[in-house]
Amino acid sequence: MAxxxxxxxxxxxxxxxxxxxxxxxxxxxxxxxxxxxxxxPRLEDNxxxxxxxxxxxxxxxxxxxxxxxxxxxxxxxxxxxxxxxxAEELYRVPAVMVMATxxxxxxxxxxxxQSLVEFLLKQGYDVYLIDWSPPRADEKRLxxxxxxxxxxxxxxxxxxxxxxxxxVTILGYCMGGVLSVIYAALHPEGPLKNLVCFTTPIDWxxxxxxxxxxxRDFFDxxxxxxxxxxxxxxxxxxxxxxxxxxxxSAGQIKLWENMWNDEFxxxxxxxxxxxxxxxxLACEYFRQTIKELMWRNGLFENxxxxxxxxxxxxxxxxxxxxxxxxxxxxxxxxxxxxxxERVGSTDKQELVLxxxxxxxxxxxxxxxxxxxxxxRCLAPWSLA
Length: 384
Fold this sequence. Notes:
Order of helices and strands: HHEEEHEHEHEHHHHHHEEEHHEH
CATH superfamily: Alpha/Beta hydrolase fold, catalytic domain
Low-confidence stretches: 1-17, 19-41, 49-57
CATH class: Alpha Beta
CATH topology: Rossmann fold
Mean pLDDT: 81
């Protein structure tokens, strides 16, 4: 079958051997490090990989997450970054982005012109990022309480000390949005000025195939985490792949058909790199997510209790903006829809944007659609 698919690919007139060599060269390369910043101790190298390039490479791999940023705070699996401003004047309220715990935060800063971070900086926002590293073996006991009662509050304090403002706008993506919502519900009197979420699941009974695969009648989560400890990144990656098992093969065929198109190949490699750069999850955090969010649907039912406090969505009274994707195969619309309906805010809005789960925050679509809409809504909040 694979042979037949390859034979169907139309090669340009310059010859199949030369095109094949070009495709192999491009896909054998690794990322090239950014310029050294040794004289700036807080600035981390913004390139994703520090491995040397393959000698057979004919062009550098695209640099990901290249917008200059400083490492402000580090705590175990948590890293808090501050992006360097790109505008002369800044909005008063800083924006703290919270990445999903399954992937790397450079999806917000994919490439110049395709970066949500770059857009926000140019619009005058003071941007911070909560990013995650793989949890160590001794961090397997991390739970939802650690993320929502320790990590995020700690970062909010660090941001306040750094910028001198007491209030923050939090922007959470996917599971980062879930953690942000829980944080907001557990801290109704906290420093949250505005809450922005992207493709954030609230009703976990509507999570499609994930709901079926993790059904308590078939999925023994205790046996899994007790045997493995931290849940391997391969398991997380495969679960996403199984939602659309033909997508990767179709993508490879499309790459072959466009391998002489430099922009297409560059874009393909950027998204491919991020999608496969999946993180493992702390075993107790994973166990709790399955049992409390998926099985008991605790967030939707307002029954999730962490640290003796109940995460009631009605406690959230800050302005809320929720951007959802029209063709999201990971977080279906029915799973994300209840957020705006159930929060206690009077100033709340839902945006249904064209595209999929990732294109809401990454690539040209994020800049043209999601970022523009988001910028219009955030500006009045950030000035107050």
